[in-house]
Amino acid sequence: MFLFERAAALASTLTNTQRGKGCVAYDPTAKAPTYGYVPNLAPGIVFSIVFFLSLSMHIFQTIRSRKWWYSSLALGAFGECLGWAGRTGSHYCPYNSSLFSLQISILIISPCFFSAGLYYILGQMINQYGQRYSPISARTYLYIFIGFDIMSIVIQAVGGGLASSAGSKTPPGNTATGAHIMLAGIIIQLVSMSVFAILFVTFLWLARAIPISRILILSTTFSAFCIMVRNYYRSVELGQGWNGYLISHEVYFTVLDGALMALATLILNIYYPATYLSGVPEMSKRVSSEDIALKNAV
């Protein structure tokens, strides 16, 4: 008890900056952590495990299928796992600025890797079922959307770094600049995903006579929907500012970020896209069919 009381007394004399350099338990008599709350342990553990399992599956599925573009899904799951591990650590060390910076920066950009995976899926569908069903070619499509994805990642990473750095200072610095930069990155991703949704629906409508796997369509649509809802939430959250209602109430982040991203990645584990896409271009299939018909005729 004596040692515990000495530790508690010492904790109450530390500034938030001093706390941020190590691990000090939450002190209700001191200033609130940068989060505005102490992250709950249960969501941190659950999502760390879920994303780790998803990461393991994506690695296995990518190696087995040898479709290396799908490694972006593994990168997204890795980022989510690392970010939620940081939030788990923050339950015990809520003043630690390194853990805060880790989770805020990584969790803001990880969905971009899932978006890249979805862009590739549509590119593969266009390549396999026919360019005539898409306004632009599969290669042009990937160049444009992956370019915007990279831009979004860089902007959000810079904004996250600035915001977390300012928020961990004593007294706290101006986090508005970093939050606005992060918001700009999320808006870019949101616009990109919205255009993707339009092109995806256009492709499906034009190719409605083609027997495309319903499972592939539904799983891709569901994953994209989860990511878009998450992006809308993060846009509103950051728009309210660092001291806004949404960002200071953990339940919204748990449900509208953690749970939605878990669903977005797990659906692609269960219904792995490469299983439903042969990867054989339409022209190659056409040539093969003509060769078979010619041989049969002879």
SS content category: mainly alpha
Mean pLDDT: 83
How would you describe the oligomerization state of the chains in this entry? single chain
Give the H and E element order: HHHHHHHHHHH
- What is the percentage of strand-forming residues? under 5%
The end-to-end distance, rounded to whole angstroms, is 93 Å
- Largest pleated sheet: none
Rg from C-alpha positions?
23 Å
Unreliable residue runs: 1-14, 286-295
The shape is elongated
- Please estimate the helix content: over 70%
Counted by DSSP, the helix tally is 11
- Total strands: the figure is 0
In short:
It contains 11 helices and no strands. With 298 residues, it is mainly α. It is elongated, with a radius of gyration of 23 Å.
Key attributes of the depicted protein:
disordered N terminus, 11 helices, mainly alpha
Notes on the protein architecture:
- This protein is an all-alpha fold and 298 residues long.
- It contains eleven helices and no strands.
- Helix 4 runs antiparallel to helix 5 and helix 6 packs antiparallel against helix 7.
- It starts with a helix and ends with a helix.
- The N terminus is likely disordered.
